[in-house]
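Agenda item 2: pyridoxal-5'-phosphate complex prediction
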Amino acid sequence: MKQSELLNQKQKEHLWPNHLLYYSNPLPLDRGEDMYVWDVDGKKYLDFFAGILTTSVGHNNKRVNERIQEQLGKLIHSSTLYPNAVHIEFAEKLGQITPEGLDTFYFGASGTDADETAVLLAQVYTGNTEVIALRHGYSGKSQFAMSLTGQGVWRMGPPHVGYVRHAMTPYTYRALGNMDEDTFVQACLDDLQDVIATMTSGKLACMIMEPIQGVGGFITLPPKYMQGAAEIIRAHGGLIIIDEVQTGFGRTGTHWWGHQHCGITPDIMTMAKGIANGMPLSAVATTKEIAQSAVGKGLTISTFGGNPLACAAGVATIEEMMESYGPDRCAEIGAMLESGLKKLAEKYPIIGQIRGRGLMQGVELVIDRETKEPAAQLANGMLEESRKTGLLIGKGGMHGNTLRIAPPLIATKEHVEEALEKLDYAFSQVMEMDF
Ligand SMILES: Cc1ncc(COP(=O)(O)O)c(C=O)c1O
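Presented output:
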């Protein structure tokens, strides 16, 4: 029996069956190095999904690993009850790249934790409870994070928190009535006003949004929408929380943060995934004034938040990015990826839209460009065929029909060329499918 078969069998025996696993025959990974990973049977793959946009500076990055090793010999755990040097060093380092004023941090262990904490802080600061989120958004797996999430398939369990209301997302590719972009953006802003007027008391704690909705299929929010929404929310007393869990750390190119393409300033920003190259760490950044508002309102600790090993990894990850793999480089390599994907779109009519920014490119697949009927089976086919060529990509979107292409930020021109070649071949195979 192959090692992969054995592991897949044991997975079934010991792990919850509702774990989402990619591929009809799941892929147990063994090791990684820079842009590549190997499965347990020894097959090599070019990784263009980076463990869900998380291995930001490459698998087994030498600098990150050395920093973890160094910390390993000192202190693995302290909890947030004790200040420790690496926790503080990481806060200082992060403060060098966060937007001006957002220089006070809470560290947690997951994106879910960060989003929950951010909303709680907004509620404490404003004294209001009600929250606006966007349809197609994703915030995580806790009961409250699922309440923020705007996709039915990710909202398992009993009815969710009633004080979260979801406004229409400016998913311009699927605009209502095929409206043009400007008209649809305005319609979404009108809808936001309407949601507030009809479903809330008018006094808001916050709105949370992702500059590019990751799990939603890289739906890229138009700057005009984000600006308009921020104005509306603030007029109702609410704060703006920007979820940079997927879009942060230069991935979108040119700027460190995805919202910086859109001309808005958040009051609170959350981040995770790429923050520490795969070590479990998340952060909430805000102003000193907003952070101060929670003092005296109740106690808070986090046992694993800001874990010393994760913070050590975070320091080295940001150093790597600042020195070698920053936003300008992401813009440059991302432009190559985007233009290559656009060439593939000329060749394959099942590509409905290419969207995203930098090294975060979505490819929405449709049965027919006119009807835009979502083609989930073709997206599955693309994952399977890419895997055969030795390429890992992701998928997402409400209909599961959008390919998510987001390599580690260390990807070079040659890696992009290799990925495009493999995608080209995978598309040619998928075009043979019966659809
Ligand atoms: C935008 C966004 N926010 C929050 C989360 C939740 O993060 P985690 O899975 O680390 O809890 C995710 C996870 O995919 C995400 O994409």
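Discussion summary: The chain has a mean pLDDT of 97.
Owner for follow-up: CH.
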